[in-house]
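Hello Y.,

Per our agreement to keep a running log of every chain we model this quarter, I'm adding this entry. I've kept the format consistent with earlier entries: sequence first, then predicted structure.
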Amino acid sequence: MKCPVCEAIYRPTKGNKGSLEQRNNDYTEESTILSPPTCKRCKVDLSDLLRLHDQAIWYHREGLDLLSQELYSEAAAHNNQALALYSSNADFHALAGKLWALQGEFPEAIASWQQAIKFNPENAIACDCLQMIKLMATNHHT
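Predicted structure for the entry above:
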């Protein structure tokens, strides 16, 4: 994901931890406070961006769960929500391709796998599926 201000590439990681000590009469309690994630280049708060990322991951995981139950259209709806929130995630596009293929929509599947490879040329699912389609086309024409 990119910083909305300076467009530096941002990969979500765990927040910076700070420590706060609270004293109240006879006891001391130490709690951990997470500082908001900030862009390393321009220092803008990336909390909203991270929240969108987490939401997209949730929708994608729900899509995977629905896929395992063979509920393809429901899985596609959840994965499409993930793509709407984070359109440059190769895994989301690879899953979209798989779901299209399982529903017999091969041109859409191929387009989704090509998108996945655009964002991550080493995406195993997209690479394998496109290779299989290529082999099937070659064998079909021979």
